[in-house]
């Protein structure tokens, strides 16, 4: 099948343009999103990247196309990094396991479960597959063996396998960090003992050394995979050697994505990723979120303060994914108020007796929204439009309800939540209908009497120029 354009333009870091997303197989978009390293809780900053993947996925669906999303779980191989992007220090999962004195796999599964719980709380649609690095060792080894065979990789004197960066001349295309501008750092001059041929080479497979957990047999001796190779192996395996959209946080642009691109392209002989999308950093109350600054905020903290976790989702939507944004308790509280008001309004709009829907106005509103979203995901502009729609008295209540309902397929703010219609008994419905009739007949005495009867059934009725509406008395 031939390539199919989608009409969705998103900024591509590599070409530095707003580039149209295309389905290269003509059937569905192949999307890969770098997942979590499961050694600690994901904070709301990490969740912003995962939400970006959800927004792009839902936008593709909203435009009428199918999509397949793969997101990896890094449960082994992610070391710390120095300023040059070299991997140094301990494996993050293994180090945490040592600290907590438990099996690293127990640590990994615990944080993996919490990750899925957070995604669900943010209404993020699950990926089709969440491959774990520790369960994809064979695929990574095959990829590494192929790279050695084609002379893109070599076994160093320390029995680790390195990617030979100089065999990949277009290195730096995503980040601008070309090989000749990458200066040798201090660290490897002292630590690497010349195991690498070139200072910018990186490990694909690391010799175990004295490490005894999370290690595997390999053609090059016992060891464990480097972090970058897992994303090449998984994206090419699960998406059949072509990624239409690759998503990750801006901090992964270099070296993680640069290295992934080199590995994947060298192995396939082709440009594997068509579109690199990067989400910007999140600040909290003006500062970068970090353990040392003591301002790490988890989704659980948001819930513990009595807010709906989807308030965080709305805060993210009010900011462009490509701008650094500053989240605060104040903005979360404001978003929480907005969501609750929208849910209440939705119920009121639905319950007015005049069910007139202006389909032309609704279709036009939705088409405009899709155009904004297709223009590099301009969610802030759409939220502004929704706020004015809410107040626009020239649009009928039922039309507003229909628009909010349709757009919630993309925004996923649970606008229809609290829909108590199903819980309304037949008796209550009869009383509501009778009261509406009484009001139309201007029989206000009967109307008041019926309101009191409804109150006994725990239904509170209110009247507005738009008609009668009701809510369940808690
Ligand atoms: Zn990755």
Textual characterization of the structure:
By secondary structure, this protein is an alpha/beta fold. The longest helix has 23 residues, at 329-351. The protein has 15 helices and 17 strands. It has helices at 44-62, 92-100, 104-121, 137-149, 186-191, 227-238, 253-268, 299-304, 310-317, 329-351, 359-374, 379-391, 397-411, 426-440, 444-456, and strands spanning 4-12, 17-23, 28-33, 66-71, 79-81, 87-91, 153-155, 161-163, 202-207, 223-225, 245-249, 276-279, 282-284, 287-288, 325-327, 459-464, 467-472. The chain starts with a strand and ends with a strand. The chain has three domains: 4-279, Rossmann fold; 284-411, no CATH class; 421-472, no CATH class. Helix 11 packs parallel to helix 13. The structure holds zinc ion. Zinc ion (ZN) is lined by residues 34, 231, 248, 256.
Which keywords apply here?
474 residues; alpha/beta; Rossmann fold; four-stranded parallel β-sheet; four-stranded antiparallel β-sheet; 15 helices; 43% helix; elongated; binds zinc ion
């Amino acid at each position: 099948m031939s390539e199919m354009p989608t009409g969705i333009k998103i900024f591509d870091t590599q070409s530095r343009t707003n580039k149209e997303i295309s389905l290269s197989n003509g059937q569905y978009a192949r999307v890969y999103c770098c997942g979590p390293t499961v050694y600690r809780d994901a904070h709301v900053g990490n969740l912003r990247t995962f939400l970006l993947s959800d927004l792009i996925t839902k936008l593709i669906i909203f435009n009428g196309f199918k999509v397949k999303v793969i997101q990896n779980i890094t449960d082994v191989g992610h070391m710390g990094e120095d300023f040059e992007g070299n991997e140094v220090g301990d494996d993050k999962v293994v180090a945490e396991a040592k600290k907590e004195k438990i099996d690293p796999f127990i640590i990994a599964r615990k944080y993996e479960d919490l990750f899925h719980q957070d995604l669900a709380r943010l209404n993020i649609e699950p990926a089709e597959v969440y491959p774990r690095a520790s369960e994809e060792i064979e695929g990574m080894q095959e990829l590494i063996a192929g790279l050695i065979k084609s002379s893109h990789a070599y076994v160093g004197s320390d029995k680790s396998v390195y990617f030979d960066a100089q065999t990949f001349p277009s290195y730096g295309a995503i980040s601008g960090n070309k090989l000749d501008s990458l200066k040798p750092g201090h660290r490897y001059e002292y630590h690497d003992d010349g195991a690498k041929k070139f200072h910018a080479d990186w490990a694909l497979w690391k010799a175990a050394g004295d490490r005894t957990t999370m290690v595997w047999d390999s053609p090059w001796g016992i060891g464990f995979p480097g972090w970058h190779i897992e994303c090449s192996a998984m994206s090419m395996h699960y998406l059949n050697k072509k990624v239409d959209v690759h998503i990750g946080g801006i901090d992964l642009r270099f070296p993680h994505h640069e290295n992934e691109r080199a590995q994947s392209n060298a192995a396939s002989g082709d440009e594997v990723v068509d579109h690199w999308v990067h989400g910007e950093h999140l600040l909290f109350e003006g500062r970068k979120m970090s353990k040392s600054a003591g301002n790490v905020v988890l989704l659980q903290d948001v819930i513990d303060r009595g807010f709906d976790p989807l308030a965080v989702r709305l805060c993210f939507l009010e900011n462009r994914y490509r701008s650094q944004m500053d989240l605060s308790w104040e903005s979360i509280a404001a978003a929480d108020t907005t969501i609750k008001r929208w849910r209440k309004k939705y119920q009121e709009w639905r319950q007015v007796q005049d069910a007139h829907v202006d389909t032309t106005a609704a279709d036009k509103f939705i088409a405009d929204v899709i155009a904004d979203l297709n223009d590099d995901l301009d969610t802030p502009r759409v939220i502004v439009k929704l706020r004015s729609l809410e107040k626009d008295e020239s649009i009928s209540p039922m039309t507003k309800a229909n628009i909010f309902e349709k757009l919630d397929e993309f925004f996923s703010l649970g606008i229809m939540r609290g829909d108590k219609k199903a819980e309304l008994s037949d008796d209550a419905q009869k009383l509501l209908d009778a009261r509406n009739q009484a009001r139309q007949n201007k029989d206000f005495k009967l109307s008041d009497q019926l309101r009191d009867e409804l109150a006994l059934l725990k239904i509170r009725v209110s009247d507005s120029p738009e008609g009668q509406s009701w809510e369940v008395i808690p």
